[in-house]
Amino acid sequence: MNCIRTLPYVQAWHERYQDKGLTVIGVHTPEFTFAQYESNVERGIREFGLTYPVVVDSNREIWKALPIATGRRNTCSTRTDTCATATLAKGIIWSVSR
Question: In the chain, what are the domains?
Answer without folding.
Answer: 2-97 (3.40.30.10)
